[in-house]
Fold each of these.
Amino acid sequence: MHDEGGNGDGGESGGGADSGGGADSGADTGMPTAGMDQAFLALERELTVLLRRARAKSGEMARAVHPDLESAAYGLLARLDETGRLRATELAAYIGVGKATMSRQLRALEHLGLIAREPDPADGRAWLVHLTDEGRARFRAVRDARRVAYVRQLAGWDRDEVAQLAQLLHQLNRGGEN
């Protein structure tokens, strides 16, 4: 990968005191930190930075969609844009939140005019949620601007590297339900 200037959080990326081959640095867990375990330590460090930055960026993108939008709701808009109409329970399962949290977030999105609900024709007791035209337009404008930023940030990368990164992240996300 292309890392120019470190990981941006003031720490080192890939190197540093804990990247030596000392087998005793994992004394707290009883596991050595040499070899393959160093790869997992590096993975954890880089994912921590990535997730911290993603949370901050998600808040920025949510506010760009609507100033009163919670950062967590951006992912709901993304899923609805991708899939169309969904039941709230399906959204909750996909995002990994409870029914009460999902209901609260959907009420807020509906209040902002970004989503609408309609009865599920397959089950009159259930509701389907979908983006409004306004919600779709606002979400896509922000998403498109984000993609332009990714293209700019990764301009020096080979396209195969970008595709490989996307595939590896997909693989991680698919198996990351723990």
Note: The helical segments are 36-65, 73-83, 88-95, 99-111, 133-153, 159-175.
Amino acid sequence: MEAHRPVVMPEDEVTFRLAQLLLLLDAIASQELDGASLERIGYYDFLSANPFLVVPPEGREASLLRLAGFDPQVLSYASSSQRFTSRRERIQHDLALLIAYGCCHVRNRDAALTYAITPDGRALGARLTATYATSFSTAAAIVVRRLRKLSDKALRDQTVQWLRPVGHNGPAAALLSVLGASPELADTS
């Protein structure tokens, strides 16, 4: 292995992101939703890749996520807010590509654009059989089902809470349990 080779993250690969977005759009359609706004897709996308920000670590859904390979103790949850911002910036570009490929369509519904998977997109998504595709589909189904009834404002407000770095159940809880709370954090928790 060459030490000077750059590390490539899957999220940096357009093909990976498009496949993930197809699986998400399919999960949205499976919840009998007629598409979703760009903003809502951004939330669903990020939270489906990081489902333990939404799902408490105990219970049936948490067990399903663990069986799918997700871990609530992953230390990357501590840097969620930074990753959320950069990931959302790519969604519009990725949706435009899916539209160009005929896998997604956009509609103007009540003066707002909504995006939905097409039959060709569903057919292509069904051909994605990697373990991660199955895992992500499981997480997306859970996340969309949990969040679909929230208003846009409630979804924004709740996401701010999930992305907070401190607190007993915040995303940094796993990091703090490994490293121990610093005096500054202990006072604010």
Note: The mean pLDDT is 81.
